[in-house]
Structure to design on (782 residues):
């Protein structure tokens, strides 16, 4: 259960959970069970499902998800346990006694088939007009169990109206099968608490507080529910039609920027195993689709590091030299739009702790519609900026009214990895076979520091590389620049670096222990905020928070499925790509130097930077009116 | 809702939390108390309960929507629930039903314009041997016929 340790187990689930013994060699530490004539020894408290999976015995599941707590609501995993009056759900049955289990008796097969038929009877829609066609767990179960007709009928009218109010998440409850994965994601994994089962019996549906539209309740748009949904009941708001229209309009200059995480994951959409980056191939594919320019978001990730790092140093100076008690430390990162909305709702009194720097996506748009437009002589009104992101909250972020410092919307459309893959397929391109090509100049060269933004701890690592070197004039004291304390998938990571031998300008930081905290997933963010509230973070200087588990690479716009193993592989792909780059520190990126010499001439956090690259936040609060 | 109403409601819920505890199992008792006093649990009350129990408002709403005897929208001063389960149905529920509807001039699921009575169906009340049965607030009436049912309704204030 180690990977689920961050999950709150609801009271109703506690009787089902038997903690496993720490030492399985003690008497009673393991139990020998018989599954389909095969004798298997498992630690006490292992569920039947886990035991079967460890022994390559296939059991179908629907409501079960590795990231979430056990629910046992869909009943598709039923097995026959000898001595039990009824069939038992394998996912929620902890093995405590030497039982005999049969996973494929006539009764089991018939029960599973009936369950699928019953689910289908209320599942509105036809597979060929569904965006999850070919990637739907209900569809593949129906295939697995040879469903050839609707035994219990099939609804031909949608039962609920599609909720399109949110700019990020579309809810079509007529396709919902009530597995409650989204509920557990929202309440237990992310601790945002938007969705719950409403009403009882036949009228049950997954709904929001008072059944309000999603835009009116406290949704942070992280899209984790989309990634957990087995059917198409939840999906991201797809802007690809508008983007096609812009591409087909010769007047429009369409620019796309690609973030690091989609590049490390998009291969999965084309049947490639997780853990391969397709950066070069994607560039070619995007040009063939018709984007006029393909740029790298990592360029503005570097810019973010410079702005955010300078802001941190300014705050430190104010706190240490000027003894200004109004300075808010630790400084929180502001790259994750889900996290921004989370803190605006749940901790509005701490908004001053956030860095005012915009996210890399929005910085990019601001630069495009000012500096780039001026340099190329294109009217910013004709520039359409598209962002390929692993994220559904980015769709909300680009529609924030304050994000238009240049007089135009910074970013016109946010596109998720899934939607990008759809567009590539639509254009008749098989991505893995594309020749490799580079990004377009001048915003193509980025440092490795920008690339690792995709993994949790990446922003911290990138910022430390720059801040440490600015302050001491030396590289960070870690082998091969890999700041290991920032890496890995622990929920909340804490570490520190001592600043010694500082250069003249930063003498005031001599001997300071630069402490930092990294957290991912808003449940962990909540823990960090509670620590802050209790005053436990008073000696910490910098905190990185990403709204999604694993950071951006586990984002709500990433290919489905996403689980712990896949997140690990994507992280490996990102770190491997990073090591191969020649420039690995943001401040060494030549284009960053160029932009500060020729455009943002007042330097980081100067007047123009503040206008274009920084933003302000809204105190939204928790009350739903 | 006016500010002082909100404040008094918050205070009331705080007292209930003190009485029943601030963990999840206290939720139902708190909801029942609020329902008894106000005849419904307003959206403000739901969010205050959620805040004080440290759960999400949607979880409170989910529980409210699960139970028929707790509601999130204001209803009439009195709630009349007619049993619609099979034994009452066979004992002549239909006649009672149409008499009640005619008398009040409303359908089931509706409230009279003077907010006096809300008409609802209920499932089995356990009075199968004495049907048709009807629940007026907390009081059960059995062996109904159209005349007695209308008399009972006219006696409600």
């Amino acid at each position: 259960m180690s990977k689920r340790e961050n999950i709150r187990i609801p009271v109703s689930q506690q009787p089902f959970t038997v903690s496993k013994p720490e030492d399985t060699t003690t008497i009673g530490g393991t139990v020998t069970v018989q599954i389909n004539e095969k004798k298997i020894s498992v630690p006490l408290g292992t569920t039947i499902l886990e035991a079967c999976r460890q022994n390559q015995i296939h059991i179908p599941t629907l409501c079960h998800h590795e990231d979430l707590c056990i629910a046992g609501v869909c009943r598709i995993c039923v097995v026959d346990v000898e001595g039990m009056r009824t069939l038992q759900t394998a996912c929620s049955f902890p093995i405590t006694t030497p039982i005999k289990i049969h996973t494929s008796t006539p009764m089991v097969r018939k029960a599973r088939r009936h369950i699928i038929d019953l689910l289908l009877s209320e599942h509105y829609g036809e597979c060929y007009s569904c965006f999850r066609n070919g990637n739907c767990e209900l569809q593949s179960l129906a295939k697995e169990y040879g469903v050839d007709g609707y035994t219990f009928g099939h609804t031909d009218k949608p039962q609920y109206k599609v909720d399109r109010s949110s700019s990020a998440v579309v809810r079509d409850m007529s396709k919902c099968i009530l597995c409650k994965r989204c509920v557990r994601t929202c309440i237990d994994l992310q601790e945002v608490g938007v969705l719950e089962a409403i009403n009882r019996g036949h009228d049950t549906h997954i709904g929001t507080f008072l059944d309000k539209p999603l835009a009116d309740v406290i949704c942070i748009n992280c899209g984790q529910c989309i990634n957990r949904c087995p059917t198409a009941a939840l999906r991201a708001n797809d802007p690809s039609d508008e983007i096609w229209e812009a591409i087909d309009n010769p007047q429009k200059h369409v620019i796309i920027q690609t973030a690091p995480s989609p590049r490390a994951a998009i291969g999965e959409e084309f049947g490639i195993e997780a853990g391969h980056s397709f950066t070069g191939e994607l560039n070619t594919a995007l040009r063939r689709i018709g984007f006029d320019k393909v740029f790298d978001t990592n360029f503005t990730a570097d810019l973010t590091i410079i702005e955010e790092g300078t802001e941190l140093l300014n705050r430190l100076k104010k706190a240490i030299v000027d003894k200004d008690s109004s300075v808010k430390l630790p400084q929180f990162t502001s790259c994750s739009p889900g996290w921004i909305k989370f803190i605006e709702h749940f901790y509005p009194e701490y908004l001053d702790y956030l860095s005012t720097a915009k996210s890399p996506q929005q910085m990019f748009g601001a630069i495009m519609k000012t500096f780039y437009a001026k340099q190329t002589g294109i009217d910013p009104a004709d520039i359409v900026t598209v962002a390929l992101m692993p994220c559904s909250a980015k769709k909300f972020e680009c529609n924030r009214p304050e994000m238009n410092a240049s007089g135009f919307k910074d970013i016109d459309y946010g596109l998720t990895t899934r939607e990008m893959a759809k567009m590539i397929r639509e254009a008749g391109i098989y991505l893995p076979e594309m020749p490799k090509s580079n990004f377009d100049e001048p915003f193509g060269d980025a440092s490795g520091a920008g690339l690792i933004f995709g993994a949790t701890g990446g922003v911290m690592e990138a910022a430390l590389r720059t801040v440490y070197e600015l302050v001491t004039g030396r590289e960070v004291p870690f082998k091969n620049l890999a700041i290991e304390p920032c890496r890995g998938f622990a929920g909340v990571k804490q570490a520190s670096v001592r600043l010694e031998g500082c250069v003249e300008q930063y003498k005031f930081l001599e001997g300071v222990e630069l402490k930092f905290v990294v957290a991912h997933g808003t449940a962990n963010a909540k823990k960090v905020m509670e620590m802050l509230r209790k005053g436990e973070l008073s000696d910490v200087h910098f905190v990185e928070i990403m709204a999604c588990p694993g950071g951006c690479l586990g984002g709500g716009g990433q290919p489905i499925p996403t689980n712990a193993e896949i997140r690990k592989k994507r992280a490996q792909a990102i770190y491997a790509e990073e090591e191969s780059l020649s420039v690995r520190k943001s401040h060494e990126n030549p284009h960053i130097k160029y932009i500060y010499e020729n455009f943002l001439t007042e330097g980081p956090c100067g007047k123009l930077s503040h206008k274009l690259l920084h933003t302000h936040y809204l105190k939204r609060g928790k009350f739903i009116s | 809702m006016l500010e002082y109403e909100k404040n008094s409601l918050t205070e009331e819920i705080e007292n209930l939390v003190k009485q029943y505890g601030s963990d999840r199992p206290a939720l139902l008792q708190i909801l029942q108390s609020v329902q008894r006093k106000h005849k419904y649990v307003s959206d403000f009350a739901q969010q205050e309960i959620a805040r004080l129990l440290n759960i999400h408002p949607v979880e409170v709403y989910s529980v409210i929507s699960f139970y028929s005897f707790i509601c999130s929208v204001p209803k009439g001063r009195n709630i009349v629930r007619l049993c619609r389960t099979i034994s009452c149905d066979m004992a002549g529920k239909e006649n009672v039903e149409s008499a009640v509807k005619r008398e009040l001039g409303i359908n089931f699921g509706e409230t009279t314009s003077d907010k006096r009575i809300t008409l609802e169906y209920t499932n089995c009340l356990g009075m199968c041997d004495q049907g048709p049965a009807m629940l007026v607030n907390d009081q059960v009436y059995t062996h109904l016929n159209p005349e007695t049912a209308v008399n009972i309704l006219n006696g409600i204030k």
Notes: Chain B has a mean pLDDT of 91. The helical segments of chain B are 3-20, 27-38, 43-53, 57-66, 86-104, 146-154.
